[in-house]
Write a structure and sequence with these properties.
single chain; mainly beta; 6 helices; 36% strand; 21 strands; Lipocalin; 3 domains
Length: 441
């Protein structure tokens, strides 16, 4: 005798009777409890008429039949807002007409004859299940709700699939991550003798703190105490070249000048200090930096590029752009850019013959003594007015009129301060040069 299981449900049938699961519902309908629309039961020619207490007759429909009673009709596009909404069908009149219950209805309606209508089933358990299917499909981003969770690969294991589930993306959303972006201040003033400046921009210069880790890292506040890299500020010429600065004179001449953001006496979020440092061009700023005092001869207006820790979802549209005036690309040798050459005014560029690209036209050369075949002084001035020197060459001679020493001196932009010297001591055999010893300082 075979066993009978008449009470078992087919597994593909929802409790509610549907054999056609849906995954494309309008999820905005779920919040207001609308049942699924009946396929084919929609139109745009409904007419509202006759009100009896709270019952309104709707004509201009199609496909209505007796089982429509108890279902719902959604109306939209009526001239009177009270006539728009979803209403229960209380009476079947014909395949083109039903009565609905709407106590607030107003008839006649100016748009009768062009009102859109949709017949709907009552909200059932099947709708809950279908909304869940719709959500699953949309959350997973797959063609069907039952497809596996998508995968991705990580850059350190590109042959290994990783599930894009909530565990793997938790804590990795853009509002959970922050990165330092570059921000700019243009035309900050700085004077000779200053070892730091305080820049002010009310509301825009928040400092990092223990609770809110967004903002400017400060050199004197944890967790960035003594951290040159995190607090680094690029200082650019805001007057002429747009390039970085180097130390003009002294034991650190030629070193790169930069800054660090510092709390000091500034007040977050309205101001921040920038302390000046210098470092050899090829050295690590974390290990080889020295406090710097702004020198006579440096320009008095600078552009600052500083770090600001920003939540990724709040990044500025132009965060990966850099719109400051910058030096051109590096030369073939990869050492200095043309703009850096112009800014550094290194003496070695002038040993051949005077200033070139990057210096103002009109430079003036003076040779002394005048008309002598053995000059002892050759000076390049910025102009014939002879107010500012660019470079000077002094020559001492042996009794046979061969040069014994040659001294070159390079001047800062003030035309007075010597920022570099090169001195050659020359040896001869008869009148022929045999060796030369060069000193650079």
């Amino acid at each position: 005798m075979s066993a009978k299981h008449d009470n078992l449900l087919e597994q593909s049938i929802d409790i509610g009777g549907t054999t056609s699961p849906s995954q494309f519902l309008d999820t905005t309908d779920e919040a207001i409890g609308l049942g699924a629309s009946i396929p084919g039961q929609t139109g745009s020619a409904a007419v509202l008429s006759l009100i009896t207490v709270d019952v309104v007759t709707v004509n201009g429909l199609t496909g209505m039949w007796s089982v429509s009673e108890g279902k719902f009709l959604t109306l939209s596009g009526a001239a009177n807002a009270s006539n728009n909404g979803t209403f229960q069908i209380v009476k079947f009149n014909s395949n083109t007409s039903v009565d609905i219950r709407n106590a607030a209805a107003v008839v006649p309606d100016a748009n009768s004859g062009s009102i859109t209508w949709i017949e709907r089933n009552s909200y059932m358990l099947a709708d809950d299940l279908n909304y869940i299917r719709t959500d699953r499909r949309e959350i997973k981003g797959t063609p069907d709700w039952y497809d596996p969770v998508p995968t991705y690969t990580r850059p350190d294991a590109t042959t290994t699939d990783v599930s894009a589930n909530l565990t793997n993306i938790s804590g990795k959303t853009t509002d959970a991550q922050s990165l330092p972006e570059s921000r700019e201040i243009f035309g900050a003033g700085v004077l000779a003798g200053q070892s730091s400046i305080t820049v002010i921009s009310p509301g825009n210069l928040k400092h990092v703190d223990a609770v809110n880790t967004l903002g400017i890292p400060c050199f004197d506040v944890a967790p960035f105490v003594g951290d040159f890299r995190s607090c680094f500020v690029k200082i650019l010429d805001g007057v002429s070249s747009g390039g970085e600065f180097t130390v003009l004179g002294g034991v650190h001449a030629g070193e790169r000048i930069f800054g660090v953001t510092n709390n000091g006496a500034s007040a977050s979020p309205n101001s921040v200090e920038v302390i000046f440092y210098s470092c050899p061009l090829t050295a690590d700023i974390q290990n080889s930096s020295t406090p710097y005092t702004w020198e006579v001869g440096q320009v008095s207006s600078v552009n600052l590029v500083y770090g600001y820790n920003q939540r990724i979802d709040g990044f500025n549209f132009n965060v990966l752009r850099f719109d400051l005036t910058l030096p051109a690309s590096t030369s073939a040798g990869g050492s200095l850019t043309p703009a850096a050459h112009q800014t550094l005014r290194q003496l070695i560029h002038f040993i051949s013959e005077g200033p070139g690209n990057g210096f103002a036209t009109g430079a003036f050369k003076e040779t002394l003594p005048f008309s002598s075949p053995f000059p002892t002084s050759i000076i390049w001035w910025e102009s014939s007015a002879k107010l500012k020197k660019i470079v000077a060459k002094s020559i001492a001679y042996n009794p046979n009129k061969t040069p014994s020493t040659i001294l070159w001196e390079m001047y800062a932009t003030d035309g007075v301060t010597v920022i570099a010297t090169v001195s050659d001591a020359i040896s001869y055999s008869s009148v022929f040069e045999t060796s030369r010893t060069r000193s650079i300082s």
